[in-house]
Amino acid sequence: MAKSNLFEGVASVPGAPKPDPILIADxxxxxxxxxxxxxxxxxxxxxxAITALIGPNGAGKSTFFNLLTGFDNAQEGSGTFxxxxxxxxSSAHVARSGMVRxxxxxxxxxxxxxxxxxxxxxxxxxxxxxxxxxxAPLWRNRExxxxxxxxxxxxxFKLIEKRNDYAGSLSGGQRxxxxxxxxxxxxxxxxxxxxxxxxxxxxxxxxxxxxxVALREQGVTVLFVEHDxxxxxxxxxxxxxxxxxxxxxxxxxxxxxxNQAVQDAYLGSHHDTDLFEERS
Amino acid sequence: xxxxxxxxxxISPTTAAFALAxxxxxxxxxxxxxxxxxxxxxxxxxxxxxxISVSHGVPAWLALIIAIVGAxxxxxxxxxxxxxxxxxxxxxxxxAAAEIVRIIGRSQWLKDWTGGNTGIRGKDFKxxxxxxxxxxxxxxxVGPFQFHGTLSGSWWLILVGWVLVGVFALLFWRLNxxxxxxxxRGIREDEDAVRSLGKNVYGFKMQALVIGGVISALAGIxxxxxxxxxxxxxxxxxxxxxxxxxxxxxAATVFGPILGTALFWAIYVAIKxxxxxxxxxxxxxxxxxxxxxxxxxxxxxxxxxxPQGILGDKREIALNG
Lengths: 280, 321
Hints:
CATH superfamily of chain A: P-loop containing nucleotide triphosphate hydrolases
CATH class of chain A: Alpha Beta
Order of helices and strands of chain B: HHHHHHHHEEHHHHHHH
Oligomer: heterodimer
Helix content of chain B: over 70%
Strand order of the largest sheet of chain B: 1-2
Largest sheet of chain A: 6 strands, mixed
Number of strands of chain A: 10
């Protein structure tokens, strides 16, 4: 499943340069009071690949995620996304420039219907301007396009029967699917998934994995945070391991699990998980 | 009990003014989830803006613009520091700001402008509006209703007040059903989710705050023409009444604020009339406090048994959820 030819010749070392990086971070530091949550010297994510960001609890993965997506501000450091500098860019601006994220705790807008959730994800709806909103003919055509696009995605994600239900009535896994589908409404070039499998039942996990792989096939770059090593191994092309705010290892998913530093980092907090055993 | 009084209060300019204020609050809370605890402050800004201007010889149309600009500036001033913060901060700041407006208004410091605690008398600012009345200047009886043609709580004010209610209810309907309204409803649910979808949340919240603020200011002007400009009748109680009206009718609905306001006043007048009958030993000064207590009790019952209000959809918005 992996598409490792993208990473030919890339060294398995922290901060390794990639042939065609879409997202680059340099010297990113974020501390909360005295605690340094993230201290990453260099990070690159390869375009058109699925990169997994793993690490034990408290490794700073989510904070790093927030920094990259503009939901938090680093004290030091810089970054670029698709050639554009990320400093000072608001989270909304980051999303508009093509990098859309999802959340660990799903943020389906539960008191809006599924289709309304989807429509909200679309860009370039002139009717979101106050003055134009008053004149329906100015935005009705775009609304129709958006609705068609939304229904297509809902069909793909098998949520079309839920079209007119309130998102609050969906199961946890369906909400994850909805959140991912909604993120795709803006036709992003990169999607950032924060623990996409958390709290999802095994049957839905399969379909979520398929969707993530399908995204890569469509040319979307994926970066995701995940705890479940089996999932990481199955779909990711490249794995970046964080511990105590730093990137401690990088490499091919099978290779990186054998890295001593990774094993040590995980054994500290996950000594009872069958992390390194291949599942048949 | 005098049913005429109840019918009379339902169509009165005061009810129209409160319905207008409830529609303004509906833009804040119902649509956007902003906990504006200072609605009365916005109303005061409107009535002072208009009343002070007119009483100093400014033409009515310009006074109206001054009042609207005042409400916009007040909204921007309140929203600028608070809309980036969590919702509770906005609530605290609005309740304080409304009190600041009222206390400055009633202080002796600006007495020459605001009239201090006695406010601005009707005859100093109502003239230009009353002169525009197309109705004859005498009491006019239509069915069970009797109002003056031009003065104070007149048919003219009723007409203007309810037309404004209709216009802004229509505006709410149009905007709520538009992509603009959808973004705001998204913000009401979860700001970060909307931000992650590339929307400028701060800008949208500011727009909603300004629109609701301007509507509340207009409500203040309508109210003042039916009564007078008096800072002390626009205190916290007024704000909580407007909240009760909105929640009673149903937030985030088009007709909720209107139904809620009409029902509120009908019940309020009915309680005031029934209290001396049920409790014959009641002193006349105790009637008002009893009606007020009943309003508070009613709000509690509402939250417990029907948090979405009469017209609201529990799946969409509820006070306790």
